[in-house]
Design goal:
α8 links the parallel β13 and β14. It is globular, with a radius of gyration of 21 Å. With 380 residues, the protein is of the alpha/beta class.
Length: 380
């Protein structure tokens, strides 16, 4: 089997086996603690500019298919696993992980001690790295890692957002809808009635497709605009509400996007997820900061401060809103129970709210699905 290597900017080198595409790529090295969902992770545009290590020991065992995707392709720079399954054992599979990465030209590395890598990233923080199946000279790889562009300060949204406007009509698959559960005592609650169809403009900074599906299934007609659209262009569509999507990279470099959001606050109801949450906070006057190693996984506990309930959430972010800079207009609604960082805010007097985590990703599996209904009611 061909060899490959990963080098970090601190001089650490990991040698292993090559799978997927052949080549050399640089990016911020980070990790995800999910045991499943690797195809959704691979196709999440928020991973642009990153080399991702999965902590689960075997990845690829159920293959890949045409349905479990969150965008039109793979966006990350490289993929690192302990063991890459050579077979695809699932009735939905249309191919293997190796073939999927090879077709996209994404470099994969397997056979390394991923526990040691993750421990180093947790202790020292996310670092710039190089993954290569072409260059196996350790000193050369470290030199390349140290000279590669860091993630901070880069405008990665420009690389993943759509170029044109489009209408999104696809709803959630029936199997993805949450089942009505009885309350304590066995009483079945009444079905939620969301009211008339609402027109939502989704500003796409790298939006996961399942978010758009949730919006449609929650009673919205969805128009997707490139994230660079101006406030005037958004308001010209006379939408009932505006959704601010997830996306990759450093939010503080997106000055035009922040200006657009600032122009929409108070003019139309707003709901943001992940990067959209950070942009809303920035537009209100807050600052963001770089997390040491980020939150990436499907088991992150978040407390809803309004209800006191804990939600098990999916997350993928390397930046967070700095609570010390939060303006008086914003109130914290959700908090991460691992490190106490802000996971949600709302405006005290205007129809605008956001969450840092991904309610569409069904980690709980439906703990946070109520947020799409809340957005619909915000537009009433």
């Amino acid at each position: 089997m061909a060899r490959a290597a990963l080098a970090l900017e601190d001089g650490t080198i990991y040698f292993g086996d090559s799978f997927g595409g052949r080549g050399t790529s640089s990016g911020e090295v980070c990790f995800n603690t999910s045991m499943t969902g690797y195809q959704e992770i691979l196709t999440d545009p928020s991973y642009r500019g990153q080399i991702l290590c999965m902590t689960a020991p075997q990845i690829g065992n159920y293959g890949v298919n045409h349905d479990d995707v969150e965008s039109g392709g793979i966006h990350m720079a490289g993929f690192v696993v302990r063991e890459a399954s050579r077979i695809a054992s699932n009735f939905t599979a249309t191919g293997t992980l190796h073939d999927y990465l090879a077709a996209a030209g994404v470099v994969g590395l397997s056979g390394i001690d991923t526990r040691a890598l993750v421990r180093r990233l947790r202790i020292r923080g996310a670092m710039t790295g190089i993954v290569s199946s072409e260059v196996l000279d350790g000193a050369k790889l470290v030199e390349m890692a140290r000279s590669a562009l860091p993630l901070v300060g880069r405008d990665l949204v420009a690389e993943v957002m759509p170029k044109t406007q489009r209408e999104w009509t696809e709803p959630l698959d029936e199997s993805a809808l949450s089942l009505v559960q009885p309350t304590e005592g066995g009483v079945m609650p009444a079905a939620e009635v969301l009211g008339p169809l609402k027109h939502v403009v989704a500003l796409d900074y790298g939006m996961k497709w399942n978010i758009a599906r949730h919006l449609v299934s929650s009673g919205c007609r969805v128009t997707v605009l490139p994230g660079r659209a101006s406030a005037a262009e958004v308001l010209a569509l006379k939408a009932d509400g505006v959704f601010l999507s997830n996306g990759p990279g450093d939010p503080e470099v997106l000055l035009g996007c922040v200006e657009t959001v600032r122009g929409l606050i108070g003019a139309v109801p707003l709901f943001g997820i992940c990067l959209g949450h950070q942009l809303l906070a920035l537009a209100c006057g807050a600052k963001t900061f770089k997390l040491k190693f980020g939150h990436r996984g499907a088991n992150q506990p978040v407390m809803n401060l309004d209800t006191g309930k804990v939600e098990i959430t999916s997350q993928n972010h390397g930046f967070a809103v700095d609570e010390a800079t939060l303006p008086a207009d914003l109130v914290v609604t959700h908090r991460n129970l691992n490190d106490g960082t802000i996971e949600g805010v709302r405006h005290r007097s205007l129809p605008a709210a956001s969450v840092q985590y991904h309610p569409e990703a069904a980690a709980g599996p439906h703990d946070a699905g109520y947020l799409f209904g809340a957005f619909h009611r915000l537009m009433a």
